[in-house]
């Protein structure tokens, strides 16, 4: 079983990102970058499938400028066998990413494509769904468990109010949720080995994909500062404030 995993380069989850002064986007100068956490879970799941003998080959693909090769190399250190970078501007939008991934799927013919449920920078939660639609494949989004049974994929999905288990024919698209697994750290020997693993580079033109943007970012601004809390002396005062100041009761 060949598994394709999509990994995105994003600002590290522990970094507090600030908007640029002109409001045109996030200021990523000197910011520590990492694999999107949900994509790390996707890589981990593929590696576990390989360790269990279900997967035979794992391909890590990232779309972006040359710097995203760093996240491909990390995926290779975590256990992916080879990497693909599709060169693109980092501001590329989910529809164009889904079209490029579809072109890679056509080229590689994987049995399973695993993506994160969402990228923590744009919070789009769109790419996996659009890829499945463009490629005409079944999708299991927000997966908290996946198992291969008799050549089909059982996916347990985290949905409002509980869990839903569906069965998909392969090939299929899966997007990962937080509880699917706990990703490992790459070991130093594996980081060294990853430097020698193959990494192919394609352009959107090579893949014949139109990546023209369909959305315009109007403004990026920080969330409003939270007002400081206050202490009340009594329940009566609390009720009075909720009623007359906050007007919520
Ligand atoms: P999004 O739809 O932007 O929230 O992203 C959902 C998932 O799509 C991510 O977790 C990745 O698996 C994949 N994805 C999004 N952008 C990229 C990218 N530039 N390169 C590779 N995969 C991506």
UniProtKB/TrEMBL annotation:
Domain spans labelled Electron transfer flavoprotein alpha/beta-subunit N-terminal: 23-211
Family matches, as PROSITE patterns: ETF_BETA (PS01065)
Function: The electron transfer flavoprotein serves as a specific electron acceptor for other dehydrogenases. It transfers the electrons to the main respiratory chain via ETF-ubiquinone oxidoreductase (ETF dehydrogenase).
Subunit structure comment from the entry: Heterodimer of an alpha and a beta subunit.
Cofactor: AMP
Source species: marine gamma proteobacterium HTCC2143
Alphabetic keyword roster: Electron transport, Transport
Record protein name field: Electron transfer flavoprotein subunit beta
GO MF annotation: an example: electron transfer activity
Stated family: Belongs to the ETF beta-subunit/FixA family.
Keyword presence, Nucleotidyltransferase: no
GO aspect biological process, one term: carboxylic acid catabolic process
Cited InterPro entries: ET-Flavoprotein_bsu_CS (IPR000049), ETF_a/b_N (IPR014730), ETF_b (IPR012255), ETF_beta_N (IPR033948), Rossmann-like_a/b/a_fold (IPR014729)
A family per Pfam: ETF
